[in-house]
Structure formats: C-alpha cells, structure tokens
Design brief:
The structure holds two protein chains of two kinds. Chain A is α+β, with helices and mostly antiparallel strands. Chain A is built from 22 helices and 22 strands. In chain B, a hairpin with a 2-residue loop joins strand 1 and strand 2. By secondary structure, chain B is mostly helical. Chain B has 14 helices and two strands. Chain B folds into two domains: 32-116, no CATH class; 120-348, Orthogonal Bundle (MetI-like fold). The chains are: A alpha+beta, B mainly alpha.
Amino acid sequence: MSSKKFFLMFVLITVLSLVAAQCGSAPVPTAAPKAEPTKEEAKVEPTKEEAKAEPTKEEVKPESEKITLDTIVGTEPRSFDPSKATETTSIFFIRQMFVGLAAFDEKANVIPSLATEWKSSTDGLKWTFKLRNDIHWVHRSTDGKYEDLGIVKAQDVVYGVKRTLAPDTASEYAYVLYLIQGAEEFNTAGAAAATEPVTDTKTMTETVVATPTVDIKQLADNVGVKAIDDTTVEFTLKQPAGYFPNIAAMWVTFPMPEKAITEYGEKWTEAGNIVTNGPYTLKEWQHQASVYIEKNPLWVDAAKVQIEVFGGPINQEASTAMAMYEKNDIDIMADPGWPTPLADLDRIKGDPELSKELFIAPRLCTYYYGFINTKPPFDNVKVRKAFSAAIDRESLIKSVTKGEQLPAHSFAPPGIFGNVADNKAIGSYMIMDKYADQVTEAKKLLAEAGYPDGAGLNVKLMHNTSEDHAQIAQAIQSMWIEAFPKAKITIENQEFAVYLTTLLPATADADKPDIYRMGWCADYPDSNNWLNEVFHSKSVQNYSKFYNKDFDKLLEDAAFESDPTKRLKLYEQAEKVFMDEAGIAPIYYYTYVNMYKPWVKIVRSPVTGDPVDKWTIDWAAKKAARGK
Amino acid sequence: MFAYIIRRILWSIPVLILLALTVFVLMRAIPGGPFDFMGDKTMTPAIRKNLEYRFHLDWPFEWQFTSYILGDDVAGGMCRAMSFLPGCDVVQKSAGLGISKGLIRGDLGMAFRLRGRTVNEMVMETFPISLQLGSIATVLALLIGVPAGTMAALKQNSLIDYGASFIAILGLSIPPLVMGPLLIWIFPLTLDLFKVAGWGAKPPFILGVFPTSLGQDFWIYAILPAITLGTGFSAAIARLTRASLLQVIREDYIRTARAKGLREQVIIVRHALKNSLIPVVTVLAPLVVAVVTGTFVVERIFGIPGMGRHFVDSIGNRDYPVITGVTLIYATLLVAGNLFVDLMYGWLDPRIRYD
C-alpha cells in the first residue's frame, strides 16, 4: 500500500459516510417545492405527521412571509406545563400561550384577564372571580391547522388549581397556594404517608404498621376552590390575604385543559398535543434545539396581534447570542434569551448605533449581602450597619455592574406593592449624598461596637461561584478594607447547591460565612413575596436568621389585612424596622439590560413574560436589514 | 479471538454496574440535593418532601439503586414478596409511580429538572448531534494530523519538521474557548461566511444518527465548530505520530526491509507507519469517545444542541438520573473503543496474539 493509498483510505471513508447519509435521505420526505432557502425556511423541518397527513387544500401562508420575531432561547424550557414551570424561560412562554384569572400590567399592577372582576367577602376569606366567556381553548395540529375546543370555563380553573396541588403532579410552586383552604393537606398527602417511620431502629422491633390510608379524593374535594357556575370561581382561604389577586395571576392557578392532559399525560405540552388559551400557541419545540410559538388566529383579540411567529434556537451562551444579534440573526437581546453581556456593555454604550438599541428598565429583583445575625460580631447591629454603610453603591454600579442599577436602601424594589424605594429616610445610612459621610458614620459605629478601624475583626464573605459575583465581592472587599484598614476580610466561593446548603438555617453558625451574597426576584409583585416569604423568622429563605418580634408581627398583620392603604403602611413600618436593624445590606435593585433592533417596538412588563402580542415589528425594515 | 471478544464484553457488564454505583454514591455525597433549591430559592420543606416522594428519593439508598438497575416495579414486587426487608414500607408506598423500568431494560430513568422527560429521550435528541460533530472533527484531525506527523518524522530536523511542530504546539495551546469566538469574529461577523451558531441537521435522523442532508445548509453550521474541535485534536495526533514513527524507523526490522532492497515508500507505509500507529490508536480511542459524546465548551459557544451540556449542567442541577445516564453512555463507548483498539493491535502489529 503506497502512502497515497493510505491517505485515499481516509478520504474514501469520509466520502462513503457522506454518500451513505445522502442515499439514506431518499425515503425521508423533504419540504415541498424547495424554493430559495431562506433563514425562515431553514427552521421549518417537515415532521412525520406532516408527511402522512393528506395534502391540505387551504394553503397556509409560507413561513418566510409570516411576520417573525427572532430571538434565541436561553435554555431548554423546563416545562410548558403551568403547574410545573419554575424558571424564567418557561414562564415567559407560558404567559404567551395561556391566560389566567388575572395578569400584570406594565407597572406590575394586577389587572383583569380571564376574570373580568373579583371581590372578597367582608372577612377576606372568600374570593369570587367572574370569568369572561369569549376565551377559547385551541389546539394546533402539527400541520398548522387550528381547532376550537370550546370556551374556557370556571371548571378549568378549578381543575388547574387542584392539578397543581395534587401530590403526583409534584409542583414546585404549589406552596403559593397553601393559603387556600385544604391545599396544603392535599399537596402533602403522598409524602406524608410515605415518610412515616415504621421500623423502630433502636429496639429493632418490626412493627408492621398498616399504610395510613389517605383518601386522596376526599382531600381533593376539600380544597377551597369551586365553580359556582361556568363563569364563576370561588376560592375559600385559610386566612385573609390582601395579596390574593397576585396569586390568581400566577401560572400555577391558570386554567388547564383536562382532556389533553388526561389524553397525553406528561407529553401534553409537546407541540401538536398542547391545548392553550392565550394569544399564542406552541408551533414547534425541538427539544434542546429550538422553540417557536405562533399567533393563535382564534384568539379574541387576534386582529390586534401583529407578530405571527416568535422564537428561535436554544443557545446557552450570551456572547454567542450577542454575535447573532449583531449579525441580525436575532431581533432582541432579552427574555426569553439573554440580556446584553456585561463584557460588551462599554463597547455598546460607545457605539452610536448600538447605544440607541440599548434598553434599560427596572426589574423586580434585589441584590443583597446578608449578615448571619446570630453569629458574632454580626449579632451586633452597629457592626452590621457599619458594614452596610461602608459600601459605595453608586461607584459599584458605575464601575462594576454597569447596568444603571439603582442603589438599594430597602429590600423590595420599586414596582413591588409596599416598596419604600422612594422614602429615602428608610435605610438612609447607606445612601447619603456623599460616600465619605457614610464611611465616617461606619467608622464611628464600628468604634462604638468595640472594633476601632476594624481591629480584631476577621470577616468571611461568601458568594456562589460566578465571575460576576466575584467582581462585586472584590470591589466591596476593597471598600471595606479602605474603610476599616485593620479588619481582615476574606472572600470564599462555593458551587451553588453547596452554597445554599451552607446557608440553610439548620447549618451550624460556625460553618457559615459572616456575610453572604444573595438575590431575590419577585414571584408576584407584592411585599408578601418579599419581606414575609424571605425574612419572616419562620421562612426557610431567611439565611440571615434575622429575628425581630415586631417585624414578624407587622408582616403577619400585613398578610391578613385586606385594606391596601393599611397594608402599605404596615410594609413601610416593616422595612423601617428591617433597615434600622440592618438585617441585611441591600446593594442594588436590578435592571433589565436589553437590546432591541430599531424595527422592534415593545411593551414591557417588569414581571416575567412581556406581552409579545402587544409588540410590533416593522417587517419591511427587518427584511431590508437582513437582506443586505 | 472470538472467545476473547465475548470475554471482554461480559467483563464490561460488572464494570458498568460498578460505575453506575460509583456515580450514584458520589452524586448523593455532594451537599445539596436536586430538590433542595428552586432557581436560587430554597425549596419549601413540604414541597421538597413531595418531590422526593414523587421521584423516590425518600427511598433508602440500596432500594434506589435496585430500582435504577432492575426497575421500580421489580423493587416494588420484591417488597411485596419480602415485606420484612428494611425500607420496604417506604418502597411499597410509591413503587407504583413509575420512575424507571431499570437499566437492564434499557431505561435510564426520568430527568429531575426537565419535567416529564426521560433520560433516554434527552440522549436520543442530543447524542446524534454530538456524534456528527465529533466524527467530522475526528476525520479532520486524522486528515491533518497523520500526514503532518509523518512528514515531520521523515524530514526530521528540517524546516518542515519545525514548521509542523510549531503549528502543532500552537494548535494544542489555543483552547476552544479562545479559538471558537475568534473564528466567529473572523468568519461570520467580519467575512460574512458561515453561521454564528446552531446546527444544520435536525431530527429525525437516518438510523438515528445520520443527518438527512449534507448540503450547504449543513456545512455552514458544521465547519467552524469542527475546526475548533479538530485543531487541538489534530495537533495531538501529529505530535504522537511523529514521535512514534521516529522510534519505529530505527527498529531492526526496518533495517532488514531496507537491506532486502524494498522501495522506501513501501518501507515507510507498510512497515513503519502501520506499526507506529499503535500508540496513536491507543490514545485516539478515548479521545474520539470524548469528542463524539459531546464537548461542553465548543457546543456551548456554537449553540449546538449536543450532549456535552448534560455532563456539566446535570451536576449543577443535581440531576442524578441524567448524570448517571450520560456517564454510562460515555463509559460504554469507552469500553467499546478500548476493545476496538485491542483488536486493532493484532492488525497493526502481527506479533500481538489473542489467547
């Protein structure tokens, strides 16, 4: 064998495998008349069903002419099942495809959606929602045909709520429904039965305990949600809750299509199976590769919806997404894709064209440093206050985070019901006009606490492993060292799940850092989801172990109160106590740092899931830009 | 030889089960369970309990493993028959929820994070794409690496040798993390050639792995990642081929061949190169397996929906079935690759026998 033949062998193998692949392709149906391959067409791949189906007479609009907004999808959506979604990407798409009783407007206020109005009984325990009767369930077959499956009824809402709560559904967000009567009992029935200890390990006696027969059906019937008639749903709560309309706007209370769920089981959310009731429906979901939704032509306001197709490939790398954006492959750098990468921000701000496409808006999240309130020296409020005051939030935002975030001086950010972001008197020690004054104050507090210039302090700051968190931690560390030159401040990081385990209230204080990094984003825009769900002394999220009797009482009162004015007042007091005690050091309120091509016109919502049905696109301009 | 192959295959079964057990133990030993957190929030205890119940994580460890290997219906059956076994009370309560039919029936279980998805589905969707990319990169690496190494060895200490070695070192030392974005910047962004990200082939694949079309639409996506992946790979092959060939051409049997008066071409290709490929093939097998099962960085940079992400993401998510599943796939291929290499030895070097 000559050396030439040797190389030929490799070439041959390659060619053969290519030929094999080509030959094999014959029996697989290819797209009907293959016209110029355009970007839009590349996305559409015929499926088996399409090949089998009889050729449809009524011709569907060619894909390339459908008004399409291209994005990338930041990660494989976890589930399009409203009972099971937990993360931004899934929730974003669910809000396009389903409507619930209530929704959120551009200012994060609760507004009517499927329900036109609601009212609570005088004791605040019974909530009645009146439903509109012109929202329909629709099914889109894989060949693009739509079928009307009837009006969305009160019974569908009841089914949805109970399905979220059913133990077998194993919904993560089921806990937000625990305020409904009988909900917790129903949800925990399976696990409760399963975790009963049976064998006494000490005496090694085998006690045969009969399986506690839990009547699941009875528990389901006991849940306080019922359909009075086709258009009226009534919820019975365990306790009064002024924030209940927020819960009615969450995806876990959405109506769900019982028939499709029963028919397809876990697979009901696949394209072709899914039945939806919103402005869009699922067109294509190539798992781990791409997601596309399509305008629902049977939607009540379909005439007002311009964008016909929305979606794109799944891409987990923000910098690659940015390259695609600059190449006009995608139209937005925003949910459900990636925000603008931090590394590109300076360049974008300096670019006359790109800077115009940059869009920064408040986001319902707060970045904070927590103190372990029970671990000396941070059991001393003066030490906590000193460390909080010595953070120069303005310059951190300017030189590290760069996204025009707002310096935080309370927990709940603007947009959350009960936030005090405008009341500069609360937490004033962290937002003085001059940072130098904050440092003076911090030094004074620390000296009073017995640590002049930080002498004798050995502080461990911990964050979960991430380049962004590391940069912020280093910046703040240097601020602290400058303010308290004699203190020893070290930074550690841990992988996220390990980190959360370290911070759990059950972990011994000795194994914990003194200061930890954390963030909180709204599940629903009400302070109950903030102060109460995070820092109430009984909350599992309360890593700081902050405890103040008055604070807990204020939060409980606010949760039970139905009068909005009184609730606002209570949350204001709670924030004041929290900041006076310096339970945590809030750092900044997040912003969305997004980019939109000039031909895209958007309506934003600070709550996850912008209303894409209200967006518009200058189709001619987009085609022109892509054609060049 | 046939007996040898059978023996090797039978031996691999306990190896794979032991591996599954190791991954099982190791993953559960890391602090933080799959349902301890939700996004960046701590899971409500009642909800965590319910999820652990749903996915059998409340079962004693040995029962979880039994169920993983044999299936939860079998575990449930064992418990019905022998209810005195420790832990059976818990097993019997949720054995009917149907999480896994067991490894022996080819079921890798149900993913924790992606709801309602099985690990089998996730592998079937992503593995073919990683395999396509990895195969192209391998072919590319061989086409460049072997000739480059051979030439460098034959013209030792010449300009060709130094040039090839320099390029090889360069190829080895530029990581994909740098090479990928660099290629994206040069080709799609500056020259408007090829695609930034994505993959040109979509399921259904022919025979489960081959793309249905290998036209331009395929290559505009595949070229850049294949180059990124293949460069370092080909550099490794070139260096190995060169070193090995240099050693072989000094062997006695090469001198004998020369003494017989054989043509130089025959000596090099039939006697020297073939024999010198033994170390190359030895190293190649695990490298190829690593490349075709998905490379996290390259797939991520080029937005390729391959299997590489599961090796990394599933650890962060504590998605036990996924990490165990992809590790088993990797291990199976590795075992197969090593067997193939061992069989190749006999062909490459007639002195090797299988007894």
